[in-house]
Known about the structure:
By secondary structure, the protein is α+β, with helices and mostly antiparallel strands. It contains nine helices and 14 strands. It has helices spanning about 1-5, 20-35, 45-65, 80-85, 95-100, 135-140, 165-170, 190-195, 225-230; strands at about 70-75, 90-95, 100, 105, 115-125, 145-150, 175-180, 180-185, 200-205, 205-210, 245, 255, 260-265, 275-280. The strands form two sheets. Strands 1, 2, 3, 5, 6, 7, 8, 11 and 12 form a nine-stranded mixed sheet that branches. A five-stranded mixed sheet has the order 4-14-13-9-10, with no helix packed on it. Helix 2 (about 20-35) crosses helix 3. The chain starts with a helix and ends with a strand.
Amino acid sequence: MRRLLLALGLLATPAMAECPSQATMEGFAQRLLAGRPQGPIAGLTSLADGQCAQNRLVPLLVAQWGRPVGYKVGLTNPTAQQRFGTTHPVTGIIYEATLRAQSGAEIPAAFGAVPTVEADLLVRVSSEAINDARDHMAVLRSIDQVIPFIEMPDLALSSGFDGPNLLAINVGARLGVSGTPIPVQVSEDFAARLGSMTVTLASDQRELARAPGTALLGHPLNVLPWLAQDLASRGQRLRVGDIVSLGGFSPALPTEAGRSYTVRYENLLAEPASVSVRTR
Length: 280
């Protein structure tokens, strides 16, 4: 396990970061696991500070949520970046627990400290050539599945949201619900459909949010080159089998008990793909 965490860079501390102490992050992790909302982490003044805090937090959660299995990218549109005071996306780590539930699962509405739900999309890496891919065809040759996904982030904080704190809480990664994987087609047509599809989030048939594929950095496939470069800046690489959460097509909305949430991807396939979860 220690070797895996080292490979992901989770035990390293970014140079010059004003990192919260190990004791601070242990206390934060305990309250997070207990489902207790908490205030912002004191002393975080830069994204490097937030990354340092994340590096200490993630290993503390592995015992409960399982080993790291990939990454999530947050703040993939300018409006979200402006809200959090950044000019680019941010990266978190996803766990085995993030991918454990399948479409149709039932999950407690109060699954975390600040439980939310949002429309997302996963891909699976099939080649390490992804680390050098810079265009859509190169990206498609390096992934083999696109997976409908409802992310259920735990935003953890009762106040004080900014870029450093979002990074510190691992971009809220916690749970999710996966749909039936869609085999990737290495074609301009498939890339065009990913960009032109419409993604909707509904609760009991009432639409809550709607966004085009272009909501994620102009195109969902643009997220992967950004992520590869972000990881490279920290001496890390995407590996075969890594799962990547590409970002939110909807705001992260509070979960409500007794609801059925459905995400649909229209105009991606001949029939809309979808994924659903029920809360109790």
